[in-house]
């Protein structure tokens, strides 16, 4: 098996056109040490398997067992890490650990090309109804400069002890973030000290499994029609008032 692994990593290196020195530098070992691995004279440790899988953009299973599924689940291949509700606590606890994203499932979304620092989060609660429903999955992207976020933007905030989805309200106090709900029954604002904020992510979209009932769509259509009619009536009243004022002068 050692010989088979050595053959695979040697073949991958040649396919990429890398020198032994280049690969050794990526593994933080000497070229001589790497040469022994490639020639089956030394075994390969787990840490090197992981680094080689990233270097060659293949799965660790391919390196170790030669499995035909060689596509690595990375953002470069269109995959995004998914943090389920049950994984929120672990996400916060292991936030600063290297390679922590490897602990989560990765998914590819049709029509969506992920960029760096994008993740999928499952959400719960009713504080953001009707914008976000319990069980929706949010597509989020890190925003390094909070000052660049527009007032009222939908954000996911990672703090030292929670994951919060709200609307960010611009305020004059630089020491706090002011967050608000969409739910009319839960309109109280939330203030979070910035020193407790680890990351702020913009919500770029969502995946939902909830279908709107037909009667709800019909009701919404009627409401929209009434709103349009009311807007026309306001414009007509405004036009008539202008005429009356002109005649009075």
TrEMBL record:
Family annotation (PROSITE patterns): HTH_CROC1
Signal peptide segment: none
**Annotated Gene3D superfamilies:** lambda repressor-like DNA-binding domains, Umud Fragment, subunit A
InterPro entries linked to this entry: Cro/C1-type_HTH (IPR001387), Lambda_DNA-bd_dom_sf (IPR010982), LexA-like (IPR039418), LexA/Signal_pep-like_sf (IPR036286), Peptidase_S24_S26A/B/C (IPR015927)
Q: Which Pfam families match?
A: HTH_19, Peptidase_S24
Q: Which residues form a coiled coil?
A: 180-243
Q: Which domain of life is it from?
A: Bacteria
Q: Does the keyword Glycoprotein apply?
A: no
Q: Which UniProt keywords apply?
A: Coiled coil, DNA-binding, Transcription, Transcription regulation
Sequence ranges assigned to domain HTH cro/C1-type in this UniProt record = 9-63
Q: What is this protein called?
A: LexA family transcriptional regulator
Upper classification of the organism = Bacteria, Pseudomonadati, Bacteroidota, Flavobacteriia, Flavobacteriales
